[in-house]
């Protein structure tokens, strides 16, 4: 087993921790943007994603502190982190790219290094995070497609729409403009997401 303090795994954990912290912050920014544009339920989705990312960050932080032989004051890392500005649609597209990179490349690569260096538990942690990032990617892809095509609240067939505020449900092709039960605007309608694929 490679000594942890000299391992690539330690560096990768530090990079992952930094990346997850920034992802969590970006999702908080996206949640505010969604709220400003009137998409209350989408705001809830982004807040949940932010919570997920911070949970990953805590896991990676603990793996570093639990495995270091001494108190680690600083770990020098080098990495590229995105800084972009745009409307809600732009930020969703950017987040899709980040999630795809993490789920398809970064975390699987980190897991392989950890396994090769003898850290099977850390390899599993990277793969678990990768699977969550893939779910985020699938959800973002659908939100992006629906928002861009102005189909967030439209369906080719009748489906059940639900108000995230009061729980009112109604089956139709299109969601209501204003909830007939609690008078909340359309942005409170739960957006249907198919997690089995990236299709609408």
Notable characteristics:
200 residues, mainly alpha, Ferritin, 2 domains, two-stranded antiparallel ribbon, 4 helices, 2 strands, 57% helix
CATH topology of the largest domain: Ferritin
User: In total, how many beta strands?
Assistant: 2
Q: Give me the Rg, rounded.
A: 20 Å
What's the pLDDT, averaged over the residues? 92
Low-confidence stretches: none
CATH superfamily of the largest domain: Ferritin, core subunit, four-helix bundle
Largest sheet: number of strands, sense, barrel closure:
2 strands, antiparallel
Number of domains: 2
Overall SS class? mainly alpha
Which word captures the global form? elongated
Helical content class = 55-70%
Secondary-structure element pattern, one letter each: HHHHEE
CATH architecture of the largest domain: Up-down Bundle
N- to C-terminal separation? Answer: 46 Å
Number of helices: 4
What is the class of the largest domain in the CATH system?
Mainly Alpha
Strand arrangement within the widest β-sheet reads 1-2
Q: Strand share of the residues?
A: 5-15%
Could you explain how this protein is built, in words?
The chain has helices at residues 8-36, 40-67, 88-116, 120-148, and strands at 154-162, 169-174. It is mostly helical. It folds into two domains: 4-148, Up-down Bundle (Ferritin); 154-188. It has a two-stranded antiparallel ribbon. The longest helix is centred in the first third of the chain and has 29 residues, at 8-36. The model has no long low-confidence stretch (mean pLDDT 92).
């Amino acid at each position: 087993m490679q000594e942890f303090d000299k391992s690539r795994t330690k560096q990768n954990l530090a990079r992952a921790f930094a990346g997850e912290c920034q992802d969590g912050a970006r999702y908080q920014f996206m949640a505010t943007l969604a709220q400003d544009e009137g998409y209350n339920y989408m705001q809830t989705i982004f807040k949940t994603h932010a919570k997920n990312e911070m949970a990953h960050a805590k896991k990676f932080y603990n793996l570093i502190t639990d495995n270091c032989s001494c108190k680690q004051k600083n770990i020098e890392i080098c990495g590229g982190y995105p800084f972009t500005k745009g409307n809600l649609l732009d930020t969703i597209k950017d987040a899709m790219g980040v999630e795809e990179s993490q789920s398809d490349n970064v975390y699987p690569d980190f897991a392989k290094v950890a396994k090769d260096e003898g850290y099977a538990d850390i390899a599993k942690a990277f793969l678990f995070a990768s699977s969550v990032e893939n779910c985020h990617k699938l959800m973002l892809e659908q939100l992006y497609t629906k928002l861009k095509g102005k189909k967030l609240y439209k369906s080719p067939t009748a489906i059940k729409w639900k108000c995230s505020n009061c729980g009112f449900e109604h089956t139709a092709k299109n969601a209501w403009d204003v909830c007939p039960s609690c008078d909340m605007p359309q942005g409170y309608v739960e957006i249907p997401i198919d997690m089995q694929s990236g299709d609408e």
